[in-house]
Amino acid sequence: MTEPVTTESADSPATPPRRIAPFVVLGVAIVMAALFFVLASGTSGSDDEVGIIDSPLLGRAAPAVRSTTLDGEPFDLARRKGSWVVVNFFNSTCAPCRAEHPALVEFSEQQKSFGADGAELYTMLQINDDIDDVKNFFLTRGGDWPIIRDDEGTTNVAFGVALVPETFIIAPDGTVVLRWAGQIDADTLSRLVQQQREMYAGA
Amino acid sequence: MSSRSKWKRWPGWLALMLVIVCVLAYGTAKEAGPLTPEERVEQITQQIACPVCDGETVYESANPASAAIRAEVKAQVAAGVSSDDEIVAYIVQQFGAQTQLLPTASGFDALVWVLPAAALVCAGVGLFFAFRRWQRNVDAVPDDADRAMVEAALAAEEAAPAEPEQPDQPEGPDDEADTGR
Asked: How far is it, in rounded angstroms, from Cα B78 to Cα B18?
């Protein structure tokens, strides 16, 4: 007579969890499997050109850049249409930027030898760089291309540049065609510009 | 007795609910109001992660990229064309999704907002049923079988003398008394 009472009170709370448990386990398993596939199918960096990275700007018109050069000349990127433009984002306190500088000097000389067909090189500063330090750096280390100020930070934001150095290649029609993050050497940069030139001519 | 204690408990819950609803309503209503441009810039930059540093918002970061983003946000706020969300969306578009600190409330990301709320509701409902079940078990009226069990147990307690307390006795009777129970 005592048995029915004890079984009823013990069973009623214990039975439902036993029925739910397999479904809970199944649910957790499905979530884990989904996570595994999401993570496994993530972007795999299989690129032989290590510095080439994605940008929402690729294939689109370059953002408007209206500023002044270090020498006080007005600068408007839109007026550069008609020639290939290479914009290098730079900060005088950044070691890779300083290490990269000889490569840019070499690239600049290479492009000059092409005459009017050569790409134009510009250095874009960051918002809080010390202007005197930049001037000194270019005086001592060479480089006679225009240096563009970005005192409002607008250009760095518009190009999405978070970590210098970065290098953008802009086609004669004003389209951004390539973004390179990190240090680049002169040969790679020349080759990439040449590649883009050929693709542009073929299109 | 059970119905009286139930009624005694209800006003407390109701009062608590009322207070919570009032506080939430006041909190949401209070947020509406004109912000100065500085407050807007502050609010927006706190929603954007510094793109190159770990665990810092653009608001507090000293990085050049963050400084540029701050200046850009300030300029856009001053221009007064874009809403806060549009400014954040612009920055996130340029610098990538990892700069977005608050998940968007649409698409797959909305799960981040929905799941905790759903879990809370499920837990509340589960607790409600669990409490009801426990209460039912507690309120069960003892029947004759229960009374018989209690009486038998009490009789056994009285029948067994309190021998363990006597110091001089050896261990033998102790064992007998234990097995007897």
From this structure: 42
Alpha carbons A160 and B90: distance in angstroms, whole number: 10
Q: How many CB pairs under 8 A join A and B?
A: 61
Tens of pLDDT, residues B86-125: 999 999 999 988 898 887 777 787 888 899 999 999 999 9
Query: Contact, A84 vs A197, CB < 8 A?
Result: yes
Among A3, A5, A148, A157, most B C-beta atoms within 10 A, so best to mutate, is: A157
* pLDDT tens digits for range A130-179: 999 999 999 999 999 999 999 999 999 999 998 989 999 999 999 999 99
CB A173 within 8 Å of CB A55: no
Q: Choosing among B45, B70, B94, which should be mutated to test the A contact, i.e. which has the most A CBs within 10 A?
A: B94
A56/B contact by beta carbon, under 8 A: yes
Specify which residues A123 forms β-bridges with. Answer: A88, A147
Kindly list the residues from chain B whose CB atom is less than 8 angstroms away from the CB atom of residue A164: 64
ipTM exceeding cut-off 0.85 for this assembly: no
Q: CA A113, CA A119: separation in Å to the nearest integer?
A: 10
Q: Which one-letter DSSP state was computed for residue A154?
A: H
CA–CA dist A177, A186 (Å, integer) = 18
| 3-state helix/strand/coil string of A45-87 | CCCCCCCECCCCCCCCECCCCEEEECCCCEEEHHHHCCCCEEE
pTM over 0.90: no
Q: Closest by alpha carbon to B17, among B144, B135, B138, B124? A: B124
The amino acid occupying position B158 is: E
DSSP annotation string for B86-137: HHHHHHHHHH-GGGB-SPPSSGGGGHHHHHHHHHHHHHHHHHHHHHHHHHHH
